[in-house]
């Protein structure tokens, strides 16, 4: 899909559904915080939430004292929802996460966080761009959290095909310069009641 039609797809998803009916809506952030809490973040450490949609995770991170938050989104509709809630308390980037231009001006981050975004990148070249962009922003000693559909799960999300993961595939993509610190499968239940197993994992980039 072209960038414009991807953006349209997601804009429609956010326009056509209330926040709590989205197939990825969550109000229990404990699986994420199990991993975030292991990063020992200082209040002014930069954190980037890629493809964060209308998620309330940035609100939770602000409540937990983090102040250097960046969210990136391809959907202007989703980004506007978050802007309406949080205004100038956080930083925003509109655009495709596969384009390095989207992240221009974003500092190196202590934590790169991705829930249910990377799994939409089916093509090898998309995955290559994604990991290039990630490695440019994640400093030595910094952290990456992924939460994508697990190998045992569904092969579509929001009507789009997904590339499913386990912690070994994450590791292969990141390379040996990243160390796996923790991983677990979390069964998420959609508002429709359907079960979606996600594979959560925390990696740290080696210091040298
Ligand atoms: C399934 S939703 C997950 C949203 C959020 N991460 C969460 O956990 O609630 C996928 C999100 O990724 C965004 N997205 C999809 N492709 C993207 C891309 N190429 N660049 C940036 N964001 C993208 C969509 O707009 C959507 O908000």
UniProtKB/TrEMBL annotation:
GO biological process: methylation
Classification via InterPro entries: SAM-dependent_MTases_sf (IPR029063)
Keyword Transferase part of the UniProt annotation: yes
Cited Gene3D superfamilies: Vaccinia Virus protein VP39
Keyword list, A-Z: Methyltransferase, Transferase
MF terms (GO), sorted A to Z: methyltransferase activity
Protein name, entry field: Class I SAM-dependent methyltransferase
Classification of source organism: Bacteria, Pseudomonadati, Bacteroidota, Cytophagia, Cytophagales
């Amino acid at each position: 899909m072209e960038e414009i039609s991807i953006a349209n797809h997601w804009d429609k998803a956010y326009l056509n559904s209330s926040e709590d009916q989205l197939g990825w809506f969550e109000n229990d952030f404990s699986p994420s915080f199990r991993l975030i809490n292991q990063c020992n973040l200082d209040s002014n450490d930069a954190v980037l939430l890629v493809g964060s949609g209308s998620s309330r995770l940035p609100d939770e991170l602000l409540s937990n004292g983090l102040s250097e938050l960046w969210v990136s989104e391809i959907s202007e509709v989703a980004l506007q929802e978050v802007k309406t809630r949080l205004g100038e308390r956080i930083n925003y980037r509109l655009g495709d996460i596969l384009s390095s231009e989207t992240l221009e001006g974003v500092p190196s981050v202590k934590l790169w966080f991705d829930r249910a975004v990377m799994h939409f990148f089916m093509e090898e070249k998309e995955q290559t761009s994604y990991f290039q962009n990630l490695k440019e922003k994640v400093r030595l000693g910094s952290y990456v959290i992924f939460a994508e559909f697990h190998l045992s799960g569904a092969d579509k999300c929001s009507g789009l095909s997904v590339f499913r993961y386990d912690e070994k595939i994450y590791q292969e993509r990141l390379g040996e310069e990243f160390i796996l610190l923790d991983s677990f499968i979390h069964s998420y239940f959609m508002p429709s009641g359907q079960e979606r197993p996600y594979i959560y994992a925390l990696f740290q980039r080696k210091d040298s």
